[in-house]
Design a protein that fits this description.
It contains 15 helices and 26 strands. It is an alpha+beta fold and about 675 residues long. It has 4 domains: about 100 residues, PAS domain (Beta-Lactamase); about 110 residues, PAS domain (Beta-Lactamase, 2-Layer Sandwich); about 180 residues, Beta-Lactamase (2-Layer Sandwich), CATH 3.30.450.40; about 230 residues, 4-Layer Sandwich (Phosphatase 2c, domain 1), CATH 3.60.40. Helix 7 packs parallel to helix 11, helix 8 runs antiparallel to helix 11 and helix 11 runs parallel beside helix 12. The protein starts with a helix and ends with a strand.
């Protein structure tokens, strides 16, 4: 009976034996007491009489293992944890063969012995009151912290229902919230609640978590109440809530580090610094083991600093400057051990690490630093740096609760820093690739003057696949190209490079614009170019100075802006074409005459489209900008700069921008 021994553990469960057909053939006294069924009244009946069947497999009567709702003979429901073990009793006279030993323990007993003790040890540092309520809103378990609240909230009592009316206790909101969780099975997290008892008023953060059985039904609710009646606890909670909103709002490493420093002032500390390795900062090489200074410490830079005093006089280094980290200091130990350094009373006596750092020692003395926490910034297995929390003006030493809050802040900040690091690295890689793949020796001809600009996106989406090109064709003709690959990042930049190469190869075949786009569409649709499954738009135009005609075709790309010698701006009605990669090849060329002095502006949608304005509104703005900025005496380089400044201004670019301007020479 080793199986039975493993099921029983230290509790006294209700035990039954069930044959292969699901019929009860054994029934313990504890089972009688738990279910209300005597042995004579249950023998031969299905175990489904008291335990729910498996809805997914109704033909299988063998009981499952897990938490579920048991139905007593009197109709009352009891939440139990069920374990099942296979027994081999031999081939008896009735041919039952294999049977099952089934053990059921009421949740209230199980939690009070094992899980309850574990939870109590895990949350001993916080005033967490926990209770478990069944589907009838009856209390079946609560911990010691909940018992301390019972004078003001008497529902923390085994067997008491939340539906009971107790004079002087307003329980309507709690009851309705718990019923809602039972109904939809979704947790309710961090809802503020106020209640008073006599002259005492408490502020609680309430969370309700559904308890789901193996059949997917909600069997009950676990309530978690954090008492934040004292102002310090409320301040800590507000700090962590604000951290959840602010940290990670930017994908800039330096900004994220500064956000962490500023968040902790003054609620947690009077002075905070965030120091990161050089490889974490923008513009540095990919991450590698940090080099060592002459003193043997890693090279860090100050990424964030904040103080309750103006100008942060406690900091020996400005943001961005190299920070000296002496060997044997708490900073080195935190990096090595990946554990926080907690020094409620800062030791400045002779013989400490401060003897190797006289500048810090002097600053500590001058500013009255007396309590220190150093926390590693660790994310996804990497230590990204350290955050230092110091008290000067606040005479109270750091407590263990303060350490827990500092570590929680550091954990959230480290994930945001790692996201920013990865984004910055990928963006720089994509930007370098993008610029390497764009033409470096863009040149016009005796008949056409050209200039260009590329502006990468400043938003989270990162560098895209915008491109432009000028291709000299046989004779005096010249081709002007602008395109935009769907998506962002390295893949978009690489796809752009392949498309630009393909356009050049097709252009040298001396094909008409619509034929170039048709071949390009087929190549991309068939993945002949080895591209990702991205689409692209493209505008291809050919100008022949011998006739003054310009022939162009578009593949889902906005039309060029044409500025006449008189300054009138028009957008030619090009025949619509599907984006490249669809494989339909529905492209037609459009021919128009360009007089000497005419200006063409080919662009990508990042120049004209924003979240607040569509393409039509953007084209109208572009037309107005060109009207103001296109005197014939201005150079094209100046015109490119003026147009982009007028369209984008000081706001960050929401998408990549490519602008190619061409002017027909007189």
């Amino acid at each position: 009976m080793k199986a039975a021994d493993s099921l029983l553990g230290g509790a006294t469960p209700a035990v039954a034996v069930v044959d292969g057909d699901g019929s009860v053939i054994g029934w313990s006294r504890a089972a009688e007491e738990l279910t209300g069924y005597p042995a004579a009244g249950i023998f031969g009946r299905s175990i489904a009489t008291v335990l729910p069947p498996d809805d997914a497999r109704p033909d299988v009567l063998v009981p499952r293992t897990g938490m579920m709702e048991m139905r007593r003979q009197d109709g009352e429901a009891v939440i139990v944890r069920v374990d099942s073990a296979l027994l081999t009793l031999g081939d008896d006279a009735e041919g039952r063969g294999e049977s099952w030993l089934v053990s059921a323990i009421p949740v209230s007993i199980d939690l009070a012995t094992d899980t309850g003790a574990l939870l109590e040890s895990l949350i001993s540092s916080f005033p967490v009151a926990m209770g478990i309520w069944d589907r009838n809103l009856r209390c079946v378990w609560f911990n010691e912290a909940a018992e301390r609240l019972r004078d003001g909230y008497p529902y923390y009592r085994i067997g008491r229902y939340l539906t009971e009316v107790i004079p002087g206790i307003d329980n309507d909101a709690a009851r309705e919230a718990m019923l809602e969780v039972l109904a939809d099975g979704r947790p309710m997290i961090d809802r503020e609640a106020h209640w008073s008892h006599g002259t005492e008023e408490r502020v609680l953060s309430i969370s309700l978590l559904p308890l789901t059985g193996v059949d997917g039904r909600t069997l009950g609710v676990c309530s978690v109440a954090l008492d934040f009646s004292n102002s310090k606890a409320r301040d800590h909670l507000d700090l962590l809530r604000e951290a959840g909103v602010r940290l990670g709002s930017t994908l800039d490493v330096m900004d994220t580090a500064q956000e962490l420093a500023e968040l902790a002032i003054p609620v947690l500390a009077d002075y905070v610094t965030v120091d990161l390795p050089e490889a974490m900062l923008p513009g540095t090489a990919p991450r590698r083991p940090p080099p060592a200074t002459e003193a043997g410490g890693p090279v860090f830079r100050r990424a964030g600093v904040a103080s309750v005093h103006d100008g942060a006089p406690e900091s020996l280094w400005e943001r961005g400057e190299t920070v000296f980290v002496p060997p044997g200091s708490p900073f080195i130990e935190v990096l090595r051990s990946r554990r926080s350094h907690f020094e409620p009373v800062l030791d400045t006596s002779p013989g400490t690490w401060l003897e190797l750092d006289p500048d810090r020692a002097r600053m500590i003395h001058d500013t009255g630093m007396h309590s220190l926490i150093v926390v590693p910034l660790e994310a996804r297995g990497d230590v990204l740096g350290v955050a230092v929390f110091v008290r000067t003006a606040n005479p109270t030493a750091f407590s263990k609760d303060d350490l827990l809050v500092a570590e929680e802040l550091a954990t959230r900040a480290a994930l945001s820093l790692d996201n920013a690091r990865q984004y910055t690295r990928e963006r720089l890689t994509a930007l370098v690739l993008q610029r390497d793949l764009l033409p470096h020796d863009l040149s016009g001809s005796d008949t056409v003057e050209v200039a260009s600009r590329y502006l990468p996106s400043d938003t989270r989406e990162g560098v895209g696949g915008d491109w432009y090109d000028v291709i000299h064709l046989p004779g005096p003709r010249i081709a002007l190209v602008v395109g935009d690959v769907t998506g962002h990042g390295v893949n978009a930049a690489a796809t752009m490079g392949r498309l630009r190469t393909a356009v050049r190869a097709l252009a040298y075949l001396d094909l008409a614009p619509d034929e170039v786009l048709t071949h390009l569409d087929h190549l991309m649709a068939e993945d002949t170019l080895g591209l990702d499954t991205m689409g692209a738009t493209c505008l291809y135009a050919v100008y022949d100075p011998r006739t003054g005609h310009c022939t162009m075709a578009t593949a889902g790309h906005p039309p060029p802006a044409i500025v006449s010698p008189r300054g009138d701006v028009t957008f030619p009605p090009l025949p619509p074409g599907t984006p490249i990669g669809v494989g339909l090849g529905t492209f037609r060329s459009h021919d128009l005459h360009l007089s000497p002095g005419t200006l063409l502006a080919l662009y990508t949608d990042g120049l004209i489209e924003t979240r607040q304005a569509d393409l039509d509104a953007g084209m109208a703005r572009l037309g107005a900008a060109l009207t103001r900025a296109a005197p014939r005496s201005a150079t094209l380089e100046c015109l490119c700069t003026t147009v982009i400044d007028s369209m984008v201004g000081d706001a960050p670019a929401e998408d990549d921008i490519a602008l190619l301007m061409a002017r027909i020479r007189d």
